[in-house]
Structure formats: structure tokens, C-alpha cells
Amino acid sequence: MTQDELKTLVGQAALQYVVPGAVVGVGSGSTVNKFIEALAAMKGRIPGAVSSSIASTEHLQAAGIPVFDANDVGDIEVYIDGADEIDGHGCMIKGGGAALTREKIVAAQSRRFVCIADESKQVQVLGRFPVPVEIIPMATQRLVRQFAAMGATARIRLRGGQPLVTDNGQHILDVSGLEIADPVRFESEVNQWPGVITVGVFAHQKAAVCLLGTPGGVKTLVF
Ligand code: 5RP
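Above: inputs. Below: predicted complex with ribulose-5-phosphate.
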């Protein structure tokens, strides 16, 4: 099975976690796009979705699913999103699509995080995938030095030769050379550095369930 087929498989499998009659939280990325395609079949049975990015909002609306502002709904029953890495405890690296801040906001508003991923995303220890960090641009060079002091290398993410600008009008640092043995501690520490908006380690908002696409079918991991 190709990676794309595995993504389709888990995108469809996630439908069983959507609560009929309740607003669903929707993440971002290519795996989530498969979920949105599958969700179109349920559109009459849910009021709509809260979205974590402009791209997902556009996909949801194109599929005929109403999108609500997070401030206009209360707690969300379930949040479906992908990951760049997921460890054996449900902690994740996210933000490969630069949507990490809104993803963490919607995850925090949700009772249950269901991660959908192909098996290439499963790791023992987080850190091989560079950790995305959304930052305030004036803090860039100081944060680069702060990561260097940790033994890591932080690079500003570029698009078309210029710093990528997120949905929130900010920049992204991609931090490589990390081995994150204690994701809760790492997230808590980096999150309080001045200039950091969101660190793309999801340990406080970890997954409750992961639907992992494997050639043998969907494997369900419960954390
Ligand atoms: C976007 C994300 C995505 O969920 C993550 O990058 C996985 O993406 P994909 O499903 O395309 O592999 O965190 O900010």
C-alpha cells in the first residue's frame, strides 16, 4: 500500500470517532484532508467543525461542512489531527504544515485527541523530525542562540526564499538535533521562552488514541 492509501485508510477509520450531533475539531495536513473527504459523507449528521487552519477551513467549506469560530462553541467532543511523529505515550511532534498554534488551541478545547497517521510516524523517542516552533520574528536570533545552547540547530522556515508567514502572521523555526526524552518537560520549558508562541511538541495535549495505517490495516493505539 502507498503512503497515500494508508492516509486514506486512517482518514476513513476516524469517522467512527465523530460524535453525531456534535461539532468536531479538525486538524491540518494531508492525512486530515483524507479525513475531511470522508467526513463529507456525514455532513448532515454533525452541525459542523472547528478548524485549525485556513487550508482546512477551505477544504471543509468545499465539502459543504459549516465551520464555526472556536469562541462560538464550548468543549469539543473529539479532535482529529495528524502528526509528524508520535511516541509510545501519545506525545507528538506537530507543525510540519505550520498550523501548530491553532492545532494546539483546538486540541486544548477538545475532550479527546484522535491522531491519524501512517506507520512511518511512529517513533520511540521524539526528535528526529525537526520540531516546529512558531515565534515572534523579533526574537528569532536570540531563540536560535537559545536552541544552540541546548545543542540543537534552529533554522527559520522559508517559502520562496522568504520567511514563511503563518496563518497568525508569525514565523516558524525548525529545530533539529533534539532527542526529547521528557516531552512534557521540554514543552513546558520552551513554551515559556520569550518570543515563543507555540512549540510543536504536543505532550500536554497528547493523543488519547492513534489510528495508525499499516499494510495490514488500521492499528488502534490507546494511550
Ligand atoms: C500540520 C500538522 C500535520 O498534522 C502534520 O504535519 C502531519 O501532516 P501530514 O498528514 O501531511 O503528514 O501538524 O501543522
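The first helix runs from residue 3 to 13.
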